[in-house]
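Collaborator request, handled under Task 6.
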Amino acid sequence: MIRNTLPQSLVDNPRLDQWIAFEPDRTVTLKTGKVEIGQGILTALRQIAAEELDLQPPQLKLLSGDTELTPAEAFTAGSLSVEIGGGAVRLVCAEVRARMLESAAAKLGTDAAELAVEAGEITRAGTSTGLDYWSLAGTIDLSAQATGSVPTKRPSDFRVVGRSEQRIDLPVKVFGGGFIHDMVLPGMLHARIVHRPWTGAQLSTPDEAVGRLAGPGVEFVRDGDFVAFVSPDETACAAALGRAWLRLEWTGGEPFAPEQSEAEWLLSLPTKDRQIGPDNAPAPDAAFRVEARYSRPYLAHASIGPSCALALFKDGRLDVWSHSQGVGPLGGSIARALGLAPGSVAVHHAQGAGCYGHNGADDVAMDAAIVALRRPGTPIRVLWMREDELSSSPFGAAMVTEIAAGCDADGRVLDWTLRVTSPTHVSRPGAHGEIHLLSAEALATPVPRPEGREFPDERGGGATRNSFALYDLPPQRIIHRLVPRLPIRTSALRGLGTLGNVFAIESAIDEIAERAGRDPVAYRLSIMSDPRARRVIERAAEMAAWNPDDEGGTGSGRGIAFSRYKNHAAYAAVVAEVEVDEEVRVKRLFAAVDAGLVINPDGAINQVEGGAIQAVSWATKEQVRFEDGRVATATWDVYPILRFPEVPEVEVQLVGDPNDPPLGIGEVALGPTAAAIGNAVAHALGVRVRNLPLSRDRVMAAAMEAG
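Structure tokens returned to the collaborator:
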């Protein structure tokens, strides 16, 4: 296939040598700005490169996420790594292979069409020519710009892509290494950071008292309201931090209030409003109307491994090792926050415990950098505590989504309005050209937190992500109410606004079907003309042996939901089976996914399974709460997540056509899984719970209200 436009990653990094290098040990180094965060992307990119270069995957080494050595590809986010980063790798490797064959043909006095490649060896009619990539590497100009004009392989010719491959990052991790937490640099000191308990809090404890809290063998660094305890002894640092949490005194700022825990608090705040789509007055001839308010709460990233970073400031150069999703934007933001020259900060990616968006990785890197500047020549390692991870990382934004629809007697929608109220979903370092680093706000010369702005609609949107329903509806009106300022720090969490909007839309579709006396599957198919969407809905229903005559209100129920992530990535439909008494127990999930060409089927299924299980936790348990001015859910004891015995059976089928381009799959399962659970709970109870999480208190309140 030939692309008419180049992927953005290739536009930004056009030289072939920015992507590929041929090594003396007869391997090939593939360089990528995309990073491994638990999604298996490096395995998939290696498969793409091996396919187009006609190499065996083990012949390729990966160099990933280094501001000095790899392409600048901004963030690894948005389910774009295969589509954009992989698209660039595919074109580059196809062009390098073609240039190698042209060079070999010139040496052999033959036509390049007569030559082939087997594991890097140039062959003619199945026989080695004595030439290979490594002997020819010096004959081609890898500093040339990629043209994107060389045809890539057809799916029918694939030998590596489309085949399940073992994750290349797992073996070392399984045997107890491979994480940034395992890194040790000579002469390294450990540090623990005192983070302010709420936005704008001012530390009133004098330095002498802070020094006494540090204890023997522990130094402290203070800059304004930023405090770090530093020692060769990691345990001593942690003990000092524990004392500081209990005894440091804070004043001013904006302490958190309990009512801020609920999403509906957002409705009381000033907003910046805009409308997408035409005015859409209620249809005067509607037989019935469905008007409902749905919500999702603030969510913690709750990564199993706390964030970690290392930094070394030496001879005017700052090196940072981080599990950030965007090493380039992070390096630029650190430089600006600390008044360093942009070229003096290098960020090197090291793998962490996985993440689901903008967690604490960037902030802990800033923490390490601040301390490293005050200890030149000494490597500084900062490891956050669990309390830091659950209270100081940005939260996934709470949302309120309201839907109003007028329908005829058969459920055909005559008018449709969706209104979503939410703070920003994107405050990563570098977003909108701003710094967005937690400890930068606490310094004596602070970098104030900017007013919240949102991700552009043309790039998927933030709060508006998946707010446009793909069903055959009349012109849709979407009202986006951005809360530009609030004391709670929010940023990107897996799927951004998708969870709240798909939960609302798919719940409303079920409510309309019920009012019209229609089966939820049949109703969806009656208002859906996209054949790929219809296919996943039909397949999910088949997988679950959907029976439209299943009785509701029995305590057991099933529900279905559909979405296409960002309305231009992968399609997914999910059926959930639940049991409900005082709590919701999800028993089984069936997911049908169309992602077009799938590079690594096993990896793709893992992504769908993981997203679905996380959505179960979000839909039934998770919520950040505030009390006494602080985050109250700062430990595993009080922040509820799905436990291993509660994980449902998950069945996934990939139903896409490999001749279709690859579509992002990493976040596809979240919205439809949560919505399917909501619809299943309504089927089981005979009453609907519209606010996430579907907790014991909310389920019992709904049941009592219905009774």
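The cover message to the collaborator said: "The chain has three domains: 8-167, 180-252+302-391, 395-425+461-706. The first strand starts at residue 20 and ends at 22. Please let us know whether this matches your experimental observations."
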